[in-house]
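Contributing: when you submit paired examples, paste them exactly as shown. First protein:
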Amino acid sequence: MEPYEDTPLYKKQDSSSRFRWDAVGWAIGIIFIIVLMLAMIFIGNSRGWDAESGYCHNESESSQERFLPEPYIEEPGVPGRHGSGATARWYYWQIPPADVTAWTRGLMWLCYVAHQLFIWGCIYYAQRMKTVYPNPQDPKYSTDMKQFNWIPLVGNMVFHLIHLGQTHWTYDALAQDVSEASSQGSVIMLLVFVLMMEYRNRGMAFGWPSKDDTGKVSNALRLPLGPQELIRRYHGYAFSWAAIYTFWYHPMENTLGHALGFTHTWLFMLQGSLMYTQVHLNRYWRLLLEAWVIIHGSVVAWQTGGPALDGTSLYPMFMFGFLWVFTMTQLFGLPVFKYIPRLLWFLPFIVYMGVGIYVYGWVFVDKEGRYWIRMNEMIRIPGTEYLCVIVAWLVMWFFLWIEKKIKSDRIDEPFQPPSIVKEILYLSGVVFTYAIMVTASILIQTLDVKMDLIALMVILVIIFTVGVAVTCMLFKQIMPPYSRDSKDASNISRVSPTFDNPGFNVDEKKV
């Protein structure tokens, strides 16, 4: 579990003036992704690749040689290329299904699975060293780079180079076998859980109701913190899955949208590699990870738009949708807001609304040339994200409640490291759960489920949320919910407003 900024645990992490190896690791990661993205674009350009979007298919000789056109004209009987939302469900950057071989398919899955298991292993080893067998002399968060930092950092770099080489060898990525909605859904799931994790410190709207709001209304409406603590403690596995799964979903094509997307997944992998360092806790860096989707989502929607949309490109929906969440929720995790008068906290959102009303009222039109009609786009993404937070919270709360009922009087028993057999069984359950999540994505693609892409994405976000909740509960059985060097672990995080779960909760004053 990450410490909070106002607790003794956070303040005593590492107050020394030692060399900032964690900053060095971060800088290496940033330089790497910049160089890699430039190489990706240069190599693609040198091969004559210019597949900016499906709308440009007939203008690009190399694209016509490599891909099928977007299914603007439906092809009945051809999987993925007819029915509701065919153009949205079809992923353009994939080789024609007729050209897929066992080798091209097997290689991409082998690379993905190897990458995923490698990073999960690194996270698990690091967590065990910090929670099950902690060194009392070693601060939980420091400026050092341990072996469990360097190994995943270098490993992620190697897998990125492998993916670049694989793209220019066999090309195909997971998009051939899994639904496009699953790639987008995994990222939305990640962003939803970030909102949930940060709830204690920044609330959900203009910093409310955070831990600093102690009024009766705030206390009555504040969501119970047990689910938030649960995902905070075991989020690394879910976040690495979302990043790596999305990374291997796409080939390393030389477009701006792909470059920004791979940069985003890399930033999350870099953050994971910096676990238990001070950089990992930096709120400005963490905000960049959340907010990058504003740039990436907007650029991809702009890049893949075309004249067929009759001037109704979707990039405003992504830009203003994610900006809503940014100006109403995400900004207020920054330490600087402690020094800004509370009334001024509303200013970014007021400016955002003013610009949004102007562009939707006098700039953007619908297919019939009407203004104002599209203004509802501003609420679609934030509405979906906030509703998904509630769903995720309820799912986590339900599992904690079930645990309390099952364990009953045993819930206060001190944690004991599990046997090897028990540990293997629980870890197998974790892997099996994620396999089910991926299988659901494969089935949607294989069965050619004809449904609107957004609806499919929401369904998969719910499936992924339940799956992550299950894995968190499994991890909780083999790793303590708090560091074992905390002798006075008792209640803080409520599973509901009316009762505590002492088997999970940690005393913020004692940790």
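Second protein:
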Amino acid sequence: MKKAGVMILFSFILFLSACGTVKKEQATTVKDEQEEATEASKPEQETKIQANDESNIKEGGDTETSQKETVTAVKTEYQLNENNWTIEPINNANSKVVLLTIDDAPDTYALEMAETLKKLGTPAIFFVNGHFIDTPEEAAVLKAIHDLGFPIGNHTYSHQNLKNLSEEQQYKEIVGLNDKIEDLIGQRPKFFRAPFGSNTAYSKKIAQDEKMLVMNWTYGYDWEKEYQSKEALTDIMVNSPYLVEGANLLMHDRQWTREAIEDIVKGLQNKGFKMVDPAQIKTVE
């Protein structure tokens, strides 16, 4: 009888133990299923957050790009007199102005000249030769000048006299350089200056087709030996008999011109001249 009672008690204990195990397993299974469900939902939530963040970044970037691309329109106030190459006011614009132009850039000193002009708040056109922007380092200099806010003009690829070239060669000298400049700075030049001021009927046609204003100059001296010093060049540029309202001043990428350019600007300003912004000059449409 006692033996039978012990057996019954033992069986009851086993039963309770089994029930506990089942409950524990059920609890574990439910917990596991909940954790799996939670983990399964995480990627979707994170993906949505990342997508929203990316959208915000993209939208912000678009706004920033839009702001950078917004360029304040500059009013056209001057035009080029093609008979004497002076800059003439349109309507009531200030007539006591001169235009600064730098040829043969960027040979050696153009960037330093651009930095000096930028410091002085003085605009100018930099007329570029293609053989000075053949290497990545030279191309970077051109881009730096452009990034300082100076317009880039076309001075042909290799600075040859266009009157000695065939039409095909002239086309390559001019349009080939425009293509190269556009690749580097994203813009085609609006101004064209033939080497030695030697234009041809065909080069003028190309310039017209390329929407470039053909521009020679009023006076310049820095290629003449007697003016290849800071003092001599400053004096002649500021006191030239050809200094008139609207004068179109020619200078070059040369050491003595770099040394003189700040004094030239200040000397012209002391005479009451303002340096005209090339963006205010009417170009070819």
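If you have annotations for the second protein, write them as plain sentences, like these:
The mean pLDDT is 83.
The CA atoms of residues 143 and 185 lie 6 Å apart.
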